[in-house]
Amino acid sequence: MSAAPSAPVSGRTYTCHWCGTVSDGTSLSCPACGATINVKDIVTPTGWIELPGRKDMAKLQIGNSSCQIEGLYVPVADFNLAPGDSVYFAHHVLLWKENSVNVSMMSMKGAWKRAFAGMPIFMTQAAGPGHIAFSRDLPGELLALPLQPGHSVDVREHFLLAATSQVDYGWTNSNIWFTTKNGDETETHYPIGMMLDRFTASKMPGLLLLHASGNVFVRQLNPGQSILIKPTALIFKDPTVSIQLHFEHPNSGWNPWMSYIQRYLWLRVTGPGRIAIQSAFEPVEDNGRNITSHSPATRQNW
Amino acid sequence: MAQPSQSVTDEVERLKCNWCQGMNLKTALSCQFCGAPLDLADVVSESGWREAPRLKDMTEFHFYNSTCQVEGEIVPVAEINLAQGDGVYFEHHVMLWKDPTVPMSVLQLPGGMKRVLAGMPFIISVAQGPGRVAFSRDATGELVVLPLHPGMELDVREHAFLLASKNVAYSFERIKGLRNILFGGQGMYMDRFVTTNQSGLLILHGYGNVFERTLKPGESILVEPGAFLYKDSTVQMNVQMQQLTTGLFGGTAMSLAQMTGPGRVGIQSMYVHHSTE
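The joint structure predicted for all components is written out below.
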């Protein structure tokens, strides 16, 4: 596949603020990720960049294949696969397909560990020629992440919508956990899951499509810069970004015991690199019982 | 040849709505029969799916002597201003508010026991004019306004209809074939809406975004069963099993609904089965 974006013409270039792809800027949207061209990035005073607006029916070019993003509330990724091109996906996101598209199983490495961690052990693979479309069952946004050779991204599990076959699908331990004890009962909690999906474009450029709930915000962290986010809001991070737990105990005035038993559970993310969060996220699993052990963490008692 | 005067031209020239084929005044911005914007081009994907018209907030359209105003865009509300003698029927849980003076009754349905066994609504409520009554569902989505011309038959996923005008006949169609029932994701029955001599109005609520495609005779497409929203009765629906095999675990199978034309097929992009269904 030659996934190189369209070559700049007539000396004019436009660098996409979202994915960094250089194009001639004559289209309405970036040919690699679909972000609207020539709009001002919406950046909060704290540095979060809102996912750039994407026009309905924006089209992404991936070598000889293309992907059109349709709809605004629950967007659909409609791939037009060229002969020989393929994408993989979790089978429950398939919306429709043409008869000519061949669907098969793609086995994964580390199947037992993945099954134990609640991650999918099989991916479904679709090969062109023909159209095939995917969507999730939640209102939200599609993130198109073009990956250049040698680049990786760590994604929280179950966010994958589809990826082109040039993207390798692996995993890494999240190393974010804590255990609580109640009598003889010990429970281990994984606030961002036991593992993170790791997508890598090893030799060829590829495209990764994620679906997040609500709105998506991205932030570039400087080396050593650190912020606290809700663990379930994390979508993806660069592998260079480190993560660990952070426990925060509020000041409850005269009663230090109350301060001890009330806690906020955070994920501390430290740069350098990008992180992305979603605005609609599920509550963090925390039964409030005594924490007996945990992965490396920081603590703040107010 | 003398040019016709402006007023005569306005009376003769009409704008045809591409969604419902209704004829509108040349100056209209939205279709008076379905509310579809007339000043915007159709949004069609390269693969041939057309987006259901995105109804502008507060768009108003007419049926008989009554009007319907669409309010909101994320979870839109259909507010009906019923004229004397007009009426609409609906499943009672989609009613959002009503004027106290709007009389309510119950539609007499054939096949009551079958409907109960199939999990279909046993009681369909009817609101009669005059007065206002409003409807909405409990999820992000779009209203699909389908004016039915005389002699049309439309099959709709059960619980997907928001309301229908009282002159649209309401029945149900049993899904044929045990495999289609077990793996089709639709249950045993589909709602069937039929117009005979009169036209009528049918409004559906689709989860997420709604897309429509017109299949040619013999043309077929495979659709996730939970995404099916509606189809012309001429479209055949059958379950096709996709075998996904692996050497180690033996594999599994995935069921898809094969739709074969001729006729229209509508799908929704968010196909979760909500608990309120």
